[in-house]
Design goal:
Blueprint lengths: L4 E3 L2 H23 L2 E5 L6 H7 L4 H4 L5 E5 L1 E3 L9 H8 L21 H12 L14 E4 L24 E5 L6 E5 L1 H4 L4 E6 L5 H9 L15 E7 L6
Parallel strand pairs: 1-9, 2-3, 2-5, 5-8, 8-9
Antiparallel strand pairs: 4-7, 6-7
The protein binds 6-phosphogluconic acid.
Length: 239
């Protein structure tokens, strides 16, 4: 069973996730002069992004070398309250001085879900590759659903068997249904994968994922050559 990093509560989880992410950003920039991070959706990562958007990180990190992507996105306008891009923009991106070329939203409003997935894959061609030729993010943030989904990879969805495509359009049971998601090969190509999991509602799914229950999509995130950490709070993991 994988041992999670257990924090006292949601705020302590956000503080530790920000610290770990800041460390990984600095390590990536030292190593290769750049950092590509895939942000997670949902609500759990919001606290972490707010800490990264405030001093000291706002002031001290090499943001000009960082490129922002997403591990999944709801197929809604970027201004929609359900947009993962909007959550990250308000919590973090608006607080940094970034150029448009550093921020890569999955949805651009000009095309349907499948075309948007193909267009996003083209943007990922800029990234370094892993041993299997898949784009390799320096940091991959992921959440966990109560059903064991992560990104927009839901239990029983054939997309879980996707072995070639990097980005897919899917319909998920969690509203809004139309979504774009990175596929498992992309998640598993990352140098560092950080799951952020908070709340009693995630307890059963987290326990099964840590035990390696492959029926849950999140349990299939096992980076071949990367650092995998579960940052959880006491509500999600009473121990
Ligand atoms: C999404 C997410 C999804 C999320 C989990 C947890 O777009 O919905 O990427 O995978 O991370 O559902 O969501 P919460 O953090 O809101 O509980």
């Amino acid at each position: 069973m994988i041992e999670p990093v257990v924090l006292h509560g949601p705020d302590a989880l956000a503080v530790e996730a920000a610290r770990l992410t800041a460390e990984a950003i600095q390590a990536a920039v030292m190593r290769r002069g750049a950092c590509a991070i895939a942000l997670a959706g949902g609500q759990t990562p919001k606290g972490c992004y707010e800490y990264l958007g405030r001093p000291p990180y706002q002031r001290d990190l090499p943001w000009e070398q960082v490129s922002f992507y997403w591990s999944d996105e709801r197929f809604v306008p970027l201004t929609d309250v359900d947009s993962n891009f909007r959550m990250a923009r308000l919590a973090l991106l608006d607080r940094l001085s970034l150029t448009n070329s550093q921020v890569h939203p999955m949805v651009d409003g000009a095309q349907g879900p499948s075309a948007a997935a193909e267009a996003y894959a083209k943007q990922l061609e800029l990234l370094p590759r892993d041993a299997n030729g898949f784009p390799r993010f320096d940091i991959m943030h992921l959440g966990l659903g109560e059903d064991g989904h992560t990104a927009s990879l839901f239990p029983g969805d054939p997309v879980l068997e996707e072995a070639r495509a990097w980005v897919r359009a899917v319909k998920g049971p969690k509203p809004p249904p139309d979504r774009l998601t990175l596929t498992l090969p992309l998640l598993n190509a990352a140098r560092a994968v950080y799951f952020l999991v908070s709340g009693e509602g995630k307890r059963r799914a987290l326990e099964a994922v840590l035990r390696g229950d492959g029926r849950l999509p999140a349990a299939r995130v096992r980076p071949a050559d990367g650092d995998l950490r579960y940052l959880v709070d006491r509500e999600a993991f009473p121990g």
